[in-house]
Write a structure and sequence with these properties.
By secondary structure, this protein is of the alpha+beta class. It contains 4 helices and 29 strands. It has helices at 311-339, 341-346, 348-394, 435-442; strands at residues 12-16, 21-26, 32-37, 41-47, 54-61, 67-72, 78-83, 88-92, 98-102, 110-116, 120-125, 129-135, 142-149, 155-161, 166-171, 176-180, 185-190, 197-203, 208-213, 218-222, 228-233, 240-245, 250-255, 259-264, 269-276, 282-287, 293-298, 302-307, 450-451. Strands 14-15-16-17-29 form a 5-stranded antiparallel beta sheet, with no helix packed on it. β14 and β15 form a beta hairpin.
Length: 454
């Protein structure tokens, strides 16, 4: 098993694309992959689980600005895409033909999409607004059913929880919100973490929420009772842009340091590294319905397919092996301890005094080391944060309107002539300029506990 900081020897295949990919998503029942690009293009691939080869099925440009999200409808018949131009487009999976389009779906550029149930779609924009939509069975129309303000800055992730009829959101204002889909109201909201939250997922039977952040920390929240959870997990070498659940206790994370990690939660620890995008941030991940394939999209303009078949079994074997080693080590220590009991009894008082002094010294040294290390990590995180924000702003105008077929893998394809405009805007990574002042005025500490606003 690969350890943290190394790359696992997993079979993979890479396709180089002409523009930066923003979002990837697998079909609910097939190995079809949708990819959205900064050029405004959406492309559909068929990924062979045996060879990991990508076969382009169709490629269409339906947006005049960067396409930040493309998701399969839950019924598998349509691909829904959204863009910085504030539009939402619905396409037929088989043909790629457009079946409906909503111009001005939001007042700001759209960042994220989520699809679930028979016809439910949610979209989140740069202003912190989530809109809920009803997609007709034939895809001929997508109608807005509700609009909910969940944050004061751009929405970074949307995660539906059908089991409890709720929706999780994360935002660049450092907060996470819970929306009750029965009432379309925000029923719980975190205070700011003073750290852009970029991704969100529920674990432990939807009782815990995990958020990835710009600093690389993972933040943990309790769902029940809107209680604070003090757990934070360090160790990522950059921002955690995407989190995917492998099961109720195991997560995949995509990081700006280029690594794709496997980690367990409660207990929180790294288990493996699937692979990496060398010297490039990993923007998005997609997991196939059978959990045999993982696809990653990076800032190196590469899309990679990874064979992760059986990865959960491997992690379980690794954990069992580690537990056995720990038990064996503990037994050896106990045996050694029993043999020296008589000798230790004679000098018990002096030994206790000496051990107490040593323990105090060791604890002090550990605290100093932790504080120094924490400051170092936070300083590095701050540098990464500033660098990433600068990179996002710099990449706002990368599209091209010269050739509608250059938005995908460079091998040619069809496009909608009526929508043949180049991309302009990348996904925003920005902070509300008055955010710090607002929290100070309210007298709020920068904590990560829920604020129940029912």
């Amino acid at each position: 098993m690969a350890r943290e900081g190394t790359t696992a020897r997993r079979a993979s295949n890479t396709v180089k694309v002409s523009f930066q990919p923003f979002d990837v998503d697998f079909h609910p029942t097939a190995h079809l992959l949708s990819v959205s690009f900064i050029s405004g293009v959406v492309q559909l691939f068929d990924v062979d689980p045996a060879t990991l080869q990508f076969e382009s099925k169709w490629k269409k440009r339906g947006h005049t600005d960067s396409c930040r999200a493309a998701r399969f409808a839950a019924n598998g018949r349509f691909v829904v895409s959204a863009a910085a131009d504030k539009s939402i487009v619905v396409r037929d999976v088989e043909t790629g033909e457009r079946v409906s389009k909503v111009m001005g779906a939001h007042s700001e550029g759209i960042n994220r999409l989520a699809c679930w149930g028979d016809s439910c779609v949610a979209s989140g924009d740069d202003s912190g607004t989530v809109k809920l939509w009803d997609l007709r069975q034939d895809g001929s129309a997508i109608n807005s059913t509700a609009s909910v303000q969940v944050a004061s800055d751009y929405l970074t992730d949307i995660r539906p929880l059908p089991s409890c009829n709720r929706l999780l959101t994360s935002s660049g204002d450092g907060s996470m919100a819970v929306v009750d889909l029965a009432t379309n109201r925000v029923v719980a909201h975190t205070d700011s973490t003073d750290d852009d939250l970029l991704s969100v997922v529920a674990v432990k039977s939807d009782s815990k929420v995990v958020c990835g952040s710009q600093s690389g920390l993972l933040y943990f929240f309790n769902m029940s009772g809107a209680e604070r959870d003090n757990d934070r997990f360090r160790g990522h070498g950059g921002s955690v842009d995407t989190i995917l659940p492998l099961d109720d206790d195991t997560l995949l994370t995509a990081c700006s340091d280029g690594l794709i990690r496997v980690l367990s939660v409660f207990p929180n620890r790294f288990l493996d590294v699937v692979g990496s995008h060398t010297d490039a941030a990993v923007e998005a991940l997609a997991l196939s319905h059978d959990q045999k394939l993982l696809v990653s999209a990076g800032h190196d303009q590469k899309i990679k397919a990874w064979d992760i078949d059986g990865i959960l079994d491997e992690e379980e074997e690794g954990e069992e092996g580690g537990e056995a080693e720990e038990e064996e080590r503990q037994e050896e220590e106990n045996e050694a301890g029993e043999g020296g009991n008589d000798a230790r009894a004679n000098g018990k008082d002096s030994a206790e005094l000496g051990s107490t002094a040593a323990a105090v010294a060791a604890a002090s040294a550990a605290v100093e080391e932790d504080e120094g290390g924490g400051r170092g990590e936070e300083g590095q995180a701050g540098g990464d944060k500033a660098q990433k924000k600068a990179g996002r702003n710099k990449g706002d105008c990368k599209g091209s309107d010269s050739d509608s077929d250059r938005g995908g893998d460079g091998r040619g394809g069809d496009s909608d002539s009526s929508d043949d405009d180049g991309g302009k805007g990348g996904r925003k990574r920005r902070r509300s300029p008055n955010r710090r002042g607002n929290f100070k005025a309210r007298g709020c500490a920068m904590t990560d506990f829920f604020r129940d606003i029912e």
